[in-house]
């Protein structure tokens, strides 16, 4: 089964989030691509992700997830207590997603942007598409 995380490559918060996941993904479950990359665009097209999605996208079992559903599903495979966040999927989306949306809409203002994606460390490059 493939687990792909697409992220905003120009966002400092998203870059930090990818590094956070890499550190806690000891079984190397996830592969990554920036939304802006050719690989990211091909995946978005393949799964029919709406063009207005500009934040986190998680692809697993031939389905895509966005907003809080994506973030919480990613937690399922992380090391430590983070995997318990997966249980928050029981909270209805109308409660979860507005919180996610506030952070997503303000992430560039709060955390800043960069001109290009950071290069992953050499030992992690095979996990990036």
TrEMBL record:
Transmembrane segments: none annotated. It comes from the Bacteria. InterPro entries: DCC1-like (IPR007263), DCC_oxidoreductase (IPR052927). GO terms for molecular function: protein-disulfide reductase activity. Pfam families: DCC1-like. This is DUF393 domain-containing protein.
């Amino acid at each position: 089964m493939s687990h792909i995380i697409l992220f905003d490559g120009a966002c400092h918060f998203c870059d930090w989030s990818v590094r956070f996941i890499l550190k806690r993904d000891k079984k190397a479950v996830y592969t990554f691509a920036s939304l802006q990359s050719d690989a990211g665009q091909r995946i978005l097209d393949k799964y029919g992700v709406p063009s207005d999605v500009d934040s986190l996208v998680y692809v697993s079992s031939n389905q895509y997830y966005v907003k809080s559903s994506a973030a919480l599903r990613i937690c399922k495979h992380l090391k430590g207590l983070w995997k318990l966040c997966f249980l928050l999927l029981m909270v209805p989306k109308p409660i979860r997603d507005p919180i996610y949306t506030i952070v997503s809409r303000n992430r560039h203002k709060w955390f800043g942007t960069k001109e290009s994606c950071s290069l992953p460390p050499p030992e992690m490059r095979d996990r990036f598409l």
